[in-house]
Amino acid sequence: MDEKLEKIKQTMLEKEILLASFACKSDKAIRLSEEPEDMRPSFFRDIDRIIHSLAYARYIDKTQVFSFVQNDHITHRVLHVQLVSKIARTIGRSLNLNEDLIEAIALGHDIGHPPFGHTGEKFLNDICKREKIGYFCHNAQAVRVLKDLEDVNITVQTLDGILSHNGEILINQYKPDFAKTKEKFLEDLDNVFNVENYSKKVKSMTLEGCVVRISDIIAYIGRDIEDAILIGTVKRSDLPYYITRVLGNTNSKIVDTLVKDIIMNSYEKQHLELSKEVFEALMELKRWNNKNIYESNTATKNHNVLQNLFNNIFDAYMERINNIDYSAMIKIDENTESSDKIFYEFLNSKTREYLTNTDKRRIIIDYIAGQTDKFFLSECEKHVYGFRKEMLS
After folding, report:
1. Which domains does the chain have, with CATH numbers?
2. Parallel, antiparallel, or unpaired for β 272-273 and 173-174?
3. Which of 113, 191, 206, 315 is close enough to 195 for a disulfide, judged by CB 3.0 to 4.6 Å?
4. For the segment 326-352, what is each residue's pLDDT rounded down to a tens digit?
5. Inter-residue contact 157 to 28 (CB < 8 Å)
Protein backbone atom coordinates (compact mmCIF):
# COMPACT_ATOMS: atom_id res chain seq x y z
CA MET A 1 0.00 0.00 0.00
CA ASP A 2 1.17 3.55 -0.73
CA GLU A 3 2.90 5.09 2.31
CA LYS A 4 0.50 8.04 2.47
CA LEU A 5 -2.56 5.77 2.23
CA GLU A 6 -1.11 3.56 4.97
CA LYS A 7 -0.74 6.61 7.21
CA ILE A 8 -4.33 7.62 6.53
CA LYS A 9 -5.50 4.12 7.39
CA GLN A 10 -3.57 4.13 10.66
CA THR A 11 -5.15 7.46 11.57
CA MET A 12 -8.59 5.95 10.97
CA LEU A 13 -7.75 2.89 13.08
CA GLU A 14 -6.34 4.98 15.94
CA LYS A 15 -9.85 6.30 16.55
CA GLU A 16 -10.85 2.78 17.58
CA ILE A 17 -8.58 3.01 20.63
CA LEU A 18 -11.38 5.00 22.26
CA LEU A 19 -13.92 2.18 21.80
CA ALA A 20 -15.05 0.04 24.74
CA SER A 21 -12.69 -2.79 25.61
CA PHE A 22 -15.29 -5.38 24.56
CA ALA A 23 -16.09 -3.67 21.23
CA CYS A 24 -15.01 -5.56 18.12
CA LYS A 25 -12.13 -3.60 16.63
CA SER A 26 -10.98 -3.78 13.03
CA ASP A 27 -7.75 -5.63 13.84
CA LYS A 28 -9.90 -8.58 14.97
CA ALA A 29 -11.65 -8.85 11.60
CA ILE A 30 -11.61 -12.29 9.97
CA ARG A 31 -12.23 -12.94 6.29
CA LEU A 32 -12.97 -16.30 4.70
CA SER A 33 -10.52 -15.45 1.90
CA GLU A 34 -7.28 -13.51 2.24
CA GLU A 35 -7.00 -10.32 0.21
CA PRO A 36 -4.74 -7.28 -0.16
CA GLU A 37 -5.07 -4.47 2.36
CA ASP A 38 -6.42 -1.07 1.41
CA MET A 39 -6.93 2.19 3.27
CA ARG A 40 -10.39 1.31 4.58
CA PRO A 41 -10.80 -0.48 7.90
CA SER A 42 -12.23 -3.97 7.43
CA PHE A 43 -15.83 -3.38 8.53
CA PHE A 44 -15.96 -0.07 6.66
CA ARG A 45 -15.00 -2.04 3.55
CA ASP A 46 -17.85 -4.46 4.27
CA ILE A 47 -20.34 -1.58 4.16
CA ASP A 48 -19.11 -0.55 0.71
CA ARG A 49 -19.34 -4.10 -0.62
CA ILE A 50 -22.83 -4.63 0.72
CA ILE A 51 -24.33 -1.42 -0.65
CA HIS A 52 -22.73 -2.07 -4.05
CA SER A 53 -24.02 -5.65 -4.22
CA LEU A 54 -26.76 -6.52 -6.70
CA ALA A 55 -28.93 -7.91 -3.91
CA TYR A 56 -28.82 -4.58 -2.03
CA ALA A 57 -30.27 -2.79 -5.06
CA ARG A 58 -33.24 -5.17 -5.00
CA TYR A 59 -34.27 -4.09 -1.50
CA ILE A 60 -36.16 -1.25 -3.16
CA ASP A 61 -39.08 -3.43 -4.27
CA LYS A 62 -39.43 -5.96 -1.47
CA THR A 63 -42.34 -6.08 0.97
CA GLN A 64 -41.99 -5.13 4.62
CA VAL A 65 -45.54 -5.95 5.80
CA PHE A 66 -48.15 -4.72 3.32
CA SER A 67 -47.71 -5.92 -0.27
CA PHE A 68 -50.69 -4.74 -2.27
CA VAL A 69 -51.38 -1.26 -0.90
CA GLN A 70 -51.15 1.76 -3.18
CA ASN A 71 -49.47 4.26 -0.87
CA ASP A 72 -46.01 5.71 -1.45
CA HIS A 73 -45.44 6.21 2.28
CA ILE A 74 -45.68 2.54 3.23
CA THR A 75 -42.41 1.08 4.47
CA HIS A 76 -40.52 -1.20 2.09
CA ARG A 77 -37.52 -3.35 2.95
CA VAL A 78 -35.07 -0.71 1.68
CA LEU A 79 -36.29 1.82 4.25
CA HIS A 80 -36.46 -0.73 7.05
CA VAL A 81 -32.75 -1.60 6.81
CA GLN A 82 -31.87 2.11 6.90
CA LEU A 83 -33.99 2.58 10.01
CA VAL A 84 -32.32 -0.42 11.66
CA SER A 85 -28.91 1.00 10.77
CA LYS A 86 -29.68 4.42 12.22
CA ILE A 87 -31.17 3.06 15.45
CA ALA A 88 -28.35 0.54 15.90
CA ARG A 89 -25.66 3.17 15.32
CA THR A 90 -27.31 5.44 17.90
CA ILE A 91 -27.17 2.63 20.48
CA GLY A 92 -23.67 1.63 19.38
CA ARG A 93 -22.29 5.14 19.62
CA SER A 94 -23.80 5.58 23.09
CA LEU A 95 -22.27 2.29 24.27
CA ASN A 96 -18.93 3.07 22.59
CA LEU A 97 -19.07 0.15 20.14
CA ASN A 98 -17.83 -0.22 16.56
CA GLU A 99 -20.30 1.68 14.38
CA ASP A 100 -18.75 0.40 11.14
CA LEU A 101 -19.48 -3.20 12.08
CA ILE A 102 -22.96 -2.25 13.27
CA GLU A 103 -23.76 -0.48 10.01
CA ALA A 104 -22.45 -3.35 7.89
CA ILE A 105 -24.59 -5.90 9.75
CA ALA A 106 -27.66 -3.65 9.68
CA LEU A 107 -27.51 -2.87 5.96
CA GLY A 108 -26.96 -6.51 5.06
CA HIS A 109 -29.25 -8.20 7.57
CA ASP A 110 -32.31 -8.59 5.30
CA ILE A 111 -30.54 -9.01 1.98
CA GLY A 112 -31.73 -12.63 1.83
CA HIS A 113 -35.42 -11.76 2.20
CA PRO A 114 -37.53 -13.20 -0.65
CA PRO A 115 -40.36 -11.34 -2.36
CA PHE A 116 -43.40 -10.64 -0.16
CA GLY A 117 -41.55 -10.60 3.14
CA HIS A 118 -42.13 -13.23 5.81
CA THR A 119 -45.02 -14.63 3.77
CA GLY A 120 -42.65 -15.47 0.92
CA GLU A 121 -40.13 -16.79 3.43
CA LYS A 122 -42.71 -19.24 4.81
CA PHE A 123 -43.68 -20.45 1.35
CA LEU A 124 -40.05 -21.05 0.33
CA ASN A 125 -39.44 -22.88 3.60
CA ASP A 126 -42.49 -25.06 2.92
CA ILE A 127 -41.12 -25.90 -0.54
CA CYS A 128 -37.70 -26.76 0.91
CA LYS A 129 -39.30 -29.12 3.44
CA ARG A 130 -41.51 -30.68 0.77
CA GLU A 131 -38.53 -31.24 -1.50
CA LYS A 132 -36.42 -32.50 1.44
CA ILE A 133 -33.58 -30.04 0.79
CA GLY A 134 -33.44 -28.53 4.26
CA TYR A 135 -34.98 -25.22 5.27
CA PHE A 136 -35.21 -21.59 4.20
CA CYS A 137 -34.48 -18.75 6.64
CA HIS A 138 -33.90 -15.24 5.34
CA ASN A 139 -31.02 -14.59 7.75
CA ALA A 140 -29.05 -17.62 6.52
CA GLN A 141 -29.99 -16.78 2.94
CA ALA A 142 -28.54 -13.29 3.42
CA VAL A 143 -25.22 -14.87 4.38
CA ARG A 144 -25.50 -17.23 1.41
CA VAL A 145 -26.05 -14.29 -0.95
CA LEU A 146 -22.98 -12.41 0.24
CA LYS A 147 -20.75 -15.44 0.79
CA ASP A 148 -21.67 -17.73 -2.12
CA LEU A 149 -23.98 -16.17 -4.69
CA GLU A 150 -22.14 -12.86 -5.05
CA ASP A 151 -18.91 -13.86 -3.27
CA VAL A 152 -17.96 -10.37 -2.06
CA ASN A 153 -15.74 -11.63 0.79
CA ILE A 154 -17.45 -10.03 3.78
CA THR A 155 -15.87 -10.46 7.22
CA VAL A 156 -16.99 -13.33 9.44
CA GLN A 157 -18.10 -10.86 12.15
CA THR A 158 -20.46 -9.11 9.74
CA LEU A 159 -21.80 -12.38 8.33
CA ASP A 160 -22.25 -13.75 11.84
CA GLY A 161 -24.19 -10.64 12.91
CA ILE A 162 -26.47 -11.09 9.90
CA LEU A 163 -26.99 -14.78 10.66
CA SER A 164 -27.84 -14.13 14.32
CA HIS A 165 -30.05 -11.07 13.82
CA ASN A 166 -33.39 -12.89 14.18
CA GLY A 167 -35.57 -9.90 15.04
CA GLU A 168 -38.73 -11.96 15.42
CA ILE A 169 -37.46 -13.45 18.70
CA LEU A 170 -37.54 -11.07 21.66
CA ILE A 171 -35.53 -11.75 24.83
CA ASN A 172 -34.69 -9.58 27.84
CA GLN A 173 -30.91 -9.98 27.63
CA TYR A 174 -28.70 -10.29 24.56
CA LYS A 175 -25.37 -11.86 25.45
CA PRO A 176 -22.74 -12.38 22.74
CA ASP A 177 -20.57 -15.48 22.53
CA PHE A 178 -17.18 -13.78 22.57
CA ALA A 179 -15.44 -17.17 22.25
CA LYS A 180 -17.19 -18.02 18.98
CA THR A 181 -14.81 -18.92 16.14
CA LYS A 182 -14.98 -18.83 12.36
CA GLU A 183 -15.49 -22.60 12.43
CA LYS A 184 -18.43 -22.29 14.84
CA PHE A 185 -19.99 -19.62 12.62
CA LEU A 186 -19.73 -21.92 9.58
CA GLU A 187 -21.22 -24.76 11.63
CA ASP A 188 -24.13 -22.52 12.69
CA LEU A 189 -24.70 -21.46 9.09
CA ASP A 190 -24.87 -25.07 7.91
CA ASN A 191 -27.20 -26.00 10.76
CA VAL A 192 -29.66 -23.19 10.02
CA PHE A 193 -30.12 -24.65 6.54
CA ASN A 194 -30.33 -28.26 7.73
CA VAL A 195 -31.73 -28.37 11.28
CA GLU A 196 -35.30 -27.18 11.84
CA ASN A 197 -35.60 -24.07 14.04
CA TYR A 198 -31.84 -23.92 14.59
CA SER A 199 -31.95 -20.25 13.64
CA LYS A 200 -33.49 -19.49 17.04
CA LYS A 201 -30.39 -20.87 18.79
CA VAL A 202 -27.72 -18.80 17.02
CA LYS A 203 -25.87 -16.28 19.21
CA SER A 204 -23.80 -13.42 17.86
CA MET A 205 -20.04 -13.44 18.37
CA THR A 206 -20.04 -9.66 18.93
CA LEU A 207 -21.95 -7.16 21.01
CA GLU A 208 -22.40 -5.18 17.79
CA GLY A 209 -24.38 -8.10 16.38
CA CYS A 210 -26.59 -8.05 19.47
CA VAL A 211 -27.21 -4.32 18.95
CA VAL A 212 -28.48 -4.92 15.41
CA ARG A 213 -30.71 -7.76 16.59
CA ILE A 214 -32.58 -5.62 19.14
CA SER A 215 -32.56 -2.64 16.75
CA ASP A 216 -34.42 -4.73 14.17
CA ILE A 217 -37.36 -5.03 16.57
CA ILE A 218 -37.17 -1.37 17.58
CA ALA A 219 -37.18 -0.32 13.92
CA TYR A 220 -40.26 -2.27 12.88
CA ILE A 221 -42.51 -2.48 15.95
CA GLY A 222 -43.71 1.14 15.92
CA ARG A 223 -43.19 1.80 12.21
CA ASP A 224 -45.53 -1.07 11.32
CA ILE A 225 -48.18 0.51 13.55
CA GLU A 226 -47.83 3.83 11.71
CA ASP A 227 -48.19 2.03 8.36
CA ALA A 228 -51.25 0.16 9.61
CA ILE A 229 -52.83 3.42 10.82
CA LEU A 230 -52.02 5.12 7.52
CA ILE A 231 -53.95 2.55 5.49
CA GLY A 232 -56.79 2.17 7.98
CA THR A 233 -56.04 -1.30 9.35
CA VAL A 234 -55.97 -0.02 12.95
CA LYS A 235 -56.56 3.27 14.76
CA ARG A 236 -54.16 4.84 17.23
CA SER A 237 -56.91 4.70 19.84
CA ASP A 238 -56.92 0.89 19.47
CA LEU A 239 -53.51 0.63 21.14
CA PRO A 240 -53.93 -0.62 24.74
CA TYR A 241 -53.19 1.93 27.43
CA TYR A 242 -51.23 -0.56 29.55
CA ILE A 243 -48.73 -0.64 26.67
CA THR A 244 -48.74 2.99 25.56
CA ARG A 245 -48.30 4.37 29.11
CA VAL A 246 -44.89 2.65 29.15
CA LEU A 247 -43.76 2.86 25.52
CA GLY A 248 -45.78 5.72 24.03
CA ASN A 249 -48.36 5.61 21.25
CA THR A 250 -46.36 6.84 18.24
CA ASN A 251 -43.37 5.35 16.45
CA SER A 252 -41.23 8.30 17.52
CA LYS A 253 -42.05 7.82 21.21
CA ILE A 254 -41.71 4.04 21.04
CA VAL A 255 -38.27 4.25 19.41
CA ASP A 256 -37.13 6.93 21.87
CA THR A 257 -38.29 4.89 24.89
CA LEU A 258 -36.70 1.64 23.72
CA VAL A 259 -33.38 3.15 22.65
CA LYS A 260 -32.96 5.08 25.91
CA ASP A 261 -33.93 2.03 27.98
CA ILE A 262 -31.39 -0.19 26.18
CA ILE A 263 -28.63 2.39 26.61
CA MET A 264 -29.32 3.08 30.29
CA ASN A 265 -29.54 -0.62 31.19
CA SER A 266 -26.58 -1.74 29.07
CA TYR A 267 -24.01 1.01 29.61
CA GLU A 268 -20.54 -0.40 30.39
CA LYS A 269 -21.93 -3.96 30.36
CA GLN A 270 -20.87 -6.78 28.05
CA HIS A 271 -24.47 -7.56 27.16
CA LEU A 272 -27.64 -5.68 26.23
CA GLU A 273 -30.56 -5.50 28.61
CA LEU A 274 -34.04 -3.99 28.80
CA SER A 275 -35.68 -2.97 32.05
CA LYS A 276 -38.37 -5.39 33.27
CA GLU A 277 -41.23 -2.92 32.72
CA VAL A 278 -40.16 -1.95 29.20
CA PHE A 279 -39.44 -5.55 28.19
CA GLU A 280 -42.88 -6.72 29.31
CA ALA A 281 -44.59 -3.82 27.53
CA LEU A 282 -42.62 -4.58 24.35
CA MET A 283 -43.63 -8.25 24.54
CA GLU A 284 -47.27 -7.22 24.83
CA LEU A 285 -46.96 -4.79 21.92
CA LYS A 286 -45.39 -7.51 19.79
CA ARG A 287 -48.35 -9.81 20.56
CA TRP A 288 -50.75 -6.98 19.77
CA ASN A 289 -49.04 -6.30 16.43
CA ASN A 290 -49.18 -9.99 15.52
CA LYS A 291 -52.92 -10.19 16.12
CA ASN A 292 -54.02 -6.81 14.79
CA ILE A 293 -51.50 -6.09 12.00
CA TYR A 294 -49.54 -9.12 10.75
CA GLU A 295 -52.57 -11.43 10.90
CA SER A 296 -55.02 -8.78 9.67
CA ASN A 297 -57.07 -9.22 6.49
CA THR A 298 -55.11 -6.37 4.89
CA ALA A 299 -51.78 -8.14 5.42
CA THR A 300 -52.98 -11.67 4.60
CA LYS A 301 -55.72 -11.23 2.00
CA ASN A 302 -53.68 -12.65 -0.91
CA HIS A 303 -51.79 -15.38 0.94
CA ASN A 304 -53.60 -18.30 -0.71
CA VAL A 305 -52.98 -16.93 -4.19
CA LEU A 306 -49.33 -16.22 -3.37
CA GLN A 307 -48.82 -19.69 -1.95
CA ASN A 308 -50.03 -21.23 -5.20
CA LEU A 309 -47.82 -18.87 -7.20
CA PHE A 310 -44.68 -19.81 -5.23
CA ASN A 311 -45.40 -23.50 -5.73
CA ASN A 312 -46.22 -23.13 -9.41
CA ILE A 313 -43.25 -20.91 -10.29
CA PHE A 314 -40.92 -23.31 -8.49
CA ASP A 315 -42.29 -26.19 -10.58
CA ALA A 316 -42.00 -24.14 -13.78
CA TYR A 317 -38.37 -23.25 -13.08
CA MET A 318 -37.57 -26.86 -12.22
CA GLU A 319 -38.89 -27.96 -15.59
CA ARG A 320 -36.65 -25.42 -17.30
CA ILE A 321 -33.49 -26.15 -15.34
CA ASN A 322 -33.84 -29.91 -15.85
CA ASN A 323 -33.56 -29.30 -19.59
CA ILE A 324 -30.32 -27.31 -19.33
CA ASP A 325 -26.99 -28.88 -20.27
CA TYR A 326 -24.33 -27.83 -17.74
CA SER A 327 -21.44 -29.14 -19.82
CA ALA A 328 -21.13 -25.65 -21.31
CA MET A 329 -22.04 -22.26 -19.94
CA ILE A 330 -25.68 -21.40 -20.44
CA LYS A 331 -25.96 -19.91 -23.90
CA ILE A 332 -27.72 -16.61 -24.47
CA ASP A 333 -28.12 -15.33 -28.00
CA GLU A 334 -30.58 -13.41 -30.12
CA ASN A 335 -32.79 -16.49 -30.38
CA THR A 336 -33.17 -16.92 -26.62
CA GLU A 337 -36.71 -16.17 -25.50
CA SER A 338 -36.88 -13.00 -23.42
CA SER A 339 -38.52 -14.95 -20.58
CA ASP A 340 -35.37 -17.11 -20.33
CA LYS A 341 -32.69 -14.44 -20.58
CA ILE A 342 -32.65 -13.27 -16.96
CA PHE A 343 -32.80 -16.86 -15.74
CA TYR A 344 -29.82 -17.74 -17.94
CA GLU A 345 -27.98 -14.60 -16.83
CA PHE A 346 -28.45 -15.71 -13.21
CA LEU A 347 -26.94 -19.11 -14.00
CA ASN A 348 -24.10 -17.63 -16.05
CA SER A 349 -23.14 -15.36 -13.16
CA LYS A 350 -22.46 -18.37 -10.94
CA THR A 351 -19.25 -20.37 -10.69
CA ARG A 352 -18.85 -23.80 -12.17
CA GLU A 353 -18.48 -25.10 -8.62
CA TYR A 354 -21.88 -23.65 -7.64
CA LEU A 355 -23.61 -25.10 -10.70
CA THR A 356 -22.00 -28.49 -10.26
CA ASN A 357 -22.29 -28.92 -6.51
CA THR A 358 -25.62 -27.22 -5.74
CA ASP A 359 -28.83 -29.21 -5.89
CA LYS A 360 -30.95 -27.83 -8.73
CA ARG A 361 -33.86 -27.38 -6.36
CA ARG A 362 -31.70 -25.16 -4.13
CA ILE A 363 -30.58 -23.19 -7.21
CA ILE A 364 -34.23 -22.45 -7.94
CA ILE A 365 -34.81 -21.40 -4.31
CA ASP A 366 -31.83 -19.04 -4.62
CA TYR A 367 -33.26 -17.58 -7.83
CA ILE A 368 -36.75 -17.00 -6.42
CA ALA A 369 -35.43 -15.62 -3.12
CA GLY A 370 -33.47 -12.94 -4.95
CA GLN A 371 -36.48 -11.61 -6.85
CA THR A 372 -38.33 -8.39 -6.12
CA ASP A 373 -42.10 -8.44 -5.67
CA LYS A 374 -42.65 -6.92 -9.10
CA PHE A 375 -40.30 -9.27 -10.94
CA PHE A 376 -41.79 -12.30 -9.20
CA LEU A 377 -45.28 -11.36 -10.39
CA SER A 378 -44.05 -10.67 -13.92
CA GLU A 379 -42.43 -14.12 -13.99
CA CYS A 380 -45.66 -15.69 -12.77
CA GLU A 381 -47.52 -14.00 -15.62
CA LYS A 382 -45.10 -15.65 -18.07
CA HIS A 383 -44.83 -19.09 -16.54
CA VAL A 384 -47.92 -19.80 -14.42
CA TYR A 385 -50.87 -20.72 -16.61
CA GLY A 386 -53.86 -18.42 -16.29
CA PHE A 387 -52.33 -15.96 -13.82
CA ARG A 388 -52.72 -12.21 -14.23
CA LYS A 389 -51.64 -9.52 -11.76
CA GLU A 390 -55.21 -8.23 -11.69
CA MET A 391 -56.10 -11.35 -9.70
CA LEU A 392 -54.34 -9.75 -6.71
CA SER A 393 -56.01 -6.78 -5.05
Report:
1. 41-300 (1.10.3210.10), 303-391 (no CATH)
2. antiparallel
3. 191
4. 655 666 555 556 567 778 888 888 888
5. yes
